[in-house]
Design a protein that fits this description.
alpha+beta, four-stranded mixed sheet
């Protein structure tokens, strides 16, 4: 089920952002594993699908070439390789960190060479780059909302839809964390009801990193849904089904059905999201989708040192 949910999300995002092309049996298709790109630095995460199944190939080589479709006479604007980050995830993501200098339509040529292949598969995707993000972005001040802690609830099971064995990420509320002079790692994730199947692995990554960096960084997990979590998830699913039948976009009220107060305050509509916030309360990096220890360790080291974390749009 988790694999099917992941494929559903990836293909849904592809339909929104890219022109569809017929695929042959065995052909590798790159798909977007994020919901938006904006002017400035970005974290572009790609998944790979072959014959309806996600690919997790640590040896895959992916090269990206970026074209500004607003200027069809221009050559390749820039190019880069995507890095494999699939450790512990149900399907790999391949991540690049491009910087877009203007909004509009961009083309991405994706050259994929899987392990054992001699020739790459070439695919072309279309990406709409926004002038401004729909959610808090790098350079914005973190929104100082109250988040639940172990001191607020009668039972730890109110803190997360997953099994709560580790309480380390529920010790301090975000509004208080933003005032204590330490940087903060803020994760929005729903382990039991994640439509992308990567919330639980991402939470596990941050819980492990908290053991190393918890004395220098505030680590906070926020549940996506209101308690009781299943009822909130089902209420949201019913709204999505109704909207699909009616063929219309949701209202603001409908978008927020079932979501926790911090999710609403931060304007988030997908999961998981990780925000790295410096000691002054400014967002210095954000990561949509699955994360790994391999990607996050150097980012947290830089956060502690007061340096911009590599990557993280």
């Amino acid at each position: 089920m988790r694999f099917r949910l992941l494929i559903f999300l990836l293909l849904a995002l592809l339909l929104v952002a890219c022109a569809q092309q017929p695929t042959r049996s065995g052909q590798v298709t790159p798909v977007f594993a994020f919901t938006e790109a904006v002017v400035g630095p970005n974290r572009i995460a790609l998944g790979l699908v072959r014959d309806g199944s996600p690919v997790n190939d640590p040896g895959a080589k992916i090269h990206l070439r970026f074209f500004d479709l607003n200027d069809t006479s221009a050559p390749v604007r820039f190019e880069t390789d995507a890095i494999y980050y699939g450790q512990g995830l149900p399907a790999a993501i391949y991540v690049a960190y491009p910087t877009f200098d203007q909004a509009g339509s961009w083309g991405i040529e994706v050259q994929t060479t899987l392990s054992g292949q001699s020739e790459p598969t070439v695919a072309r995707l279309r990406l709409e780059v926004k002038e401004r993000s729909d959610v808090p972005n790098v350079g914005d001040k973190a929104i100082p909302v109250k988040t639940l802690t172990v001191g607020d609830v009668p039972d730890p099971s109110y803190l997360s839809s997953g099994r709560v064995d580790d309480l380390s990420m529920y010790q301090i509320s975000l509004d208080a964390a933003l005032q204590n002079g330490k940087p903060t790692a803020l994760l929005f994730a729903t382990p039991a009801f994640c439509r992308t199947a990567v919330c639980a692995p991402s939470l596990g990554v941050m819980q492990e990193l908290q053991k190393t960096y918890g004395d220098r960084i505030n680590f906070i997990h926020v549940e996506v849904f209101r308690h009781p979590f299943r009822e909130s998830f089902e209420a949201q699913s019913a709204v999505f089904q109704k909207l699909a039948q009616e063929g219309r976009a949701p209202t603001l009220e409908e978008r927020n059905v079932g979501l926790s107060d911090p999710m609403i305050a931060w304007g988030l509509q997908s999961e998981p999201w990780l925000f790295l916030i410096d000691a002054n309360g400014t967002i210095v990096a954000r990561y949509e989708g699955g994360i790994t220890r391999e990607e996050m360790t150097p980012a947290l080291e830089n956060l502690i040192a007061g340096k911009p974390p590599q990557g993280g749009s």
